[in-house]
Amino acid sequence: MHDLAFVFAGFAVGLIVGLTGVGGGSLMTPILIFFFGVKPYLAVGTDLLFAAFTKMGGTVSFARQRLVPWRVVGQLCAGSIPASLLTLYLLHSVGPAQPKVQAVMTTTLGIALLLTAAATLYKAVRGKQLPRTLATADLDQATRPRHWSLPLLFGAVIGTLVTLTSVGAGAIGVTVLLVLYPLLPLHRIVAADVAYAVPLTLVAGLGHASLGSVDWALLLKLLAGSIPGIWLGSRLTAKSPERLVRSLLSVLLAYAGAKLITI
Q1: How far is 149 from 27, CA to CA, in rounded Å?
Q2: Please, is 170 exposed, middle or buried when counting C-beta atoms within 10 Å of its C-beta (0-12, 13-18, 19+)?
Q3: Above pLDDT 90, what percent of the chain?
Q4: Is the pTM of this model over 0.70?
Q5: Which of 244, 79, 46 is nearest to 152 (CA)?
Q6: Percentage helix, strand, coil, to 5, in the chain?
Q7: Cα(197)–Cα(158) distance, rounded to whole angstroms?
């Protein structure tokens, strides 16, 4: 029965990620900790690889629809991956299972979830519906950031946050993309967010695996549900009531964040 519950949880989270670009770490990690009693360091490590493989499926779907702005993906990865490697080095030095490290993880995760909830609600209330398609010249302009250093800086912050908590590449990442690339249509922003999270979560997840922080059997059960879930979600993204989905998500994330901070 537990096995089916893991598969269903994977499908539900995959569907939400495909619809909104939000929900990988910000939903799965709290679900694993609160509903299934998984230790925080194991939940973070397992969820990072879960996110990598789940979003890989979403990236393929978005790429086939030619929605991924690869220049944007490269700019963010240039900041996030070095930051992730540095954070992994620090975790290797102190050990992820140490009580103090786990306390830092849960508190940081709680704060990250509250930030994610605020970002998700802001986009639901104030988000602008931009056109789905752009001319080639307009797309070239839309994929240029306000300043070349900003993707590196924000990428580094997100890389550190994701490696510590598995949260940040979703709603926070989408919010950063909306600020840095205001002319980019929402569908392309979601596609960029899903695509750049793949190398980041893969690097961070493999780093956690080398620390012994991944439950491989659990990972397989989650992926069995999530891969069809994200494929379906990425196909429905243009038809979903986005504001309603994001508003409900923000409430769930705020609740989970508050609970983690008060553990």
Answers
A1: 30
A2: buried
A3: 26
A4: yes
A5: 79
A6: 80, 0, 20
A7: 10
Asked whether 73 and 151 are in contact (CB, 8 A), the reply is no
Handedness of CA 142, 143, 149, 155 (dihedral sign): positive
CB 194 within 8 A of CB 17: yes
Total number of residues shown for the chain: 263
Per-residue model confidence as pLDDT tens digits over 219-231: 999 999 988 888 8
- As for how many domains the chain has, the answer is 1
252-260: average pLDDT: 73
Which of 61, 33, 84, 74 is closest to 205 using CA atoms? Answer: 84
Structural domain boundaries, residue 74? 2-261
pLDDT of residue 17: 75
Rounded to whole angstroms, the Cα distance separating 50 from 14 reads: 10
C-alpha R_g of the chain:
17
Q: How far is CA 214 from the centre of its chain?
A: 18
Structure tokens at 189: 């922003």
pLDDT (tens digit per residue) in 178-221: 888 888 887 788 889 889 999 999 999 999 999 888 999 999 99
Write phi, then psi, for 147 (nearest 5 degrees).
-150, 145
Place of tokens 């990865």: 77
Q: What is the mean pLDDT of the chain?
A: 82
> What residues have CB less than 8 Å from 118, skipping those under 6 apart?
250, 254
Helix axes 70-94, 186-210, angle to 10 degrees: 30
DSSP codes, 188-214: HHHHHHHHHHHHHHHHHHHHHHHTT--
